[in-house]
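Posting this for the archive.
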Amino acid sequence: MELTVEALTAGYPGHPVVDGVDLTVPSGRVVAIVGPNGCGKSTLLRTVARLHKPESGTVRAGGEDVWALTQRKAAHRIALLAQSPQAPEAVTVAGLVRYGRHPHQGLFRQWSREDEAAVRAALEATGTLSLAERRLDQLSGGQRQRCWLAMVLAQETPIVLLDEPTSALDLGHAVEVLSLVREVAAAGRTVVMVLHDLASAARYADVVVAMNGGRVVAHGPAREVVTAELVKELYGVEADVLEAPGDGAPVVVPRAGALSAVG
């Protein structure tokens, strides 16, 4: 399902955080949004997910304005994994993943075999089936993040939003999670994720969108977008952008004394 953002402005009274953003994400693609802290990345995701009301502009999922849909219908189209999500105390992995089925429940539709199948499929897809009866708070950071992803996948939405899914993960677990994101897109879902690591964005996303000051300042394939000039514009750092051996993905290497050389 295609996701389209048109002239979207959102924020707080007198302080727009997202300012006139346009973005189109085709089905089955991965878009990584990068930029400095406070540039509007998370507010953009929250507005797309109907958690932050826009001041103007539209968000369309499959051609329909998500803000014109009911909350339940929108939740059938878009799922968001926020930063640092909090789980109920002592919840098991299976219990957490079942929360992903909440939008499919209702007065005349209770838990079903379809729900159970969706939960199992999500656990299998994320490699967490063997952890189903374990408590979430007893797992490693990488394991917990895969469980949260399982909950999002169990929602069975065609569009998945991930806000810093690799935050606080070590390199091995980050690679594991981002590889899983690629598998999610390969299965036909549309994925938009916020990342801080430019190298990871360049390697795992089909398109990189750079934001600064609430606006999109660059977007396109990573090899075209990630440049030394962009790094300096976004982060105020002098850097060299090299090609990684093997796949040629851009790698950002800050220069010695980079910060002192700027400004």
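Residues 171-186 form the longest helix (16 residues). The chain is about 30% helix and 25% strand.
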